[in-house]
């Protein structure tokens, strides 16, 4: 068995700082979202994802893949959102086995109402705190890690 490659002090500080930053940033941005719009983080994730695709629809299994959620989690979230009129679910026209989720007009309106406050929170709590150079570095780091974790995509 090989010896673990323990983190040195600088690596440990970077790792722990990153973890704490992500936790606090997500907490604040989604708290601001809920306070400003009444939408939850999962609501916003589903609505914004649907809004970015042609026809504003996704197959449930593809939506789960895109959001990095289980199919069960997507199904439960979609059910809650259907009850509020934000999305509609229907059988897949192509094969009859799956189902698709479509953004409704009410869902589009909710997203459009929430988006300005959401982007302001992202700006206030991250973007405006960084220089242009720091943002470029963050983008390169993010791309590098995402590429490593999603080979072939």
Automatic annotation (TrEMBL):
PROSITE patterns: HTH_MARR_2 (PS50995). This is MarR family winged helix-turn-helix transcriptional regulator. It comes from Tenggerimyces flavus. The lineage of its organism: Bacteria, Bacillati, Actinomycetota, Actinomycetes, Propionibacteriales. PANTHER family: MARR FAMILY REGULATORY PROTEIN, TRANSCRIPTIONAL REGULATOR, MARR FAMILY. InterPro entries: HTH_MarR-typ, MarR/SlyA-like, WH-like_DNA-bd_sf, WH_DNA-bd_sf. Residues 11-147 form the HTH marR-type domain.
């Amino acid at each position: 068995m090989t010896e673990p490659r323990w983190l040195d002090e600088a690596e440990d500080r970077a790792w722990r700082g990153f973890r704490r930053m992500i936790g606090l940033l997500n907490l604040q941005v989604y708290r601001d979202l809920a306070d400003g719009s009444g939408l939850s983080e999962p609501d916003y994730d589903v609505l914004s994802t649907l809004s970015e695709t042609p026809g504003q629809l996704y197959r449930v299994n593809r939506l789960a893949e895109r959001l990095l959620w289980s199919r069960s989690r997507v199904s439960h979230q979609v059910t809650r959102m259907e009850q509020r009129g934000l999305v509609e679910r229907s059988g897949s026209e192509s094969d009859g086995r799956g189902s698709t989720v479509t953004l409704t007009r009410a869902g589009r309106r909710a997203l459009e109402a929430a988006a300005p406050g959401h982007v302001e929170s992202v700006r206030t709590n991250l973007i405006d705190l960084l220089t242009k150079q720091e943002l470029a570095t963050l983008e390169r780091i993010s791309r590098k890690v995402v590429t490593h974790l999603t080979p072939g995509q």
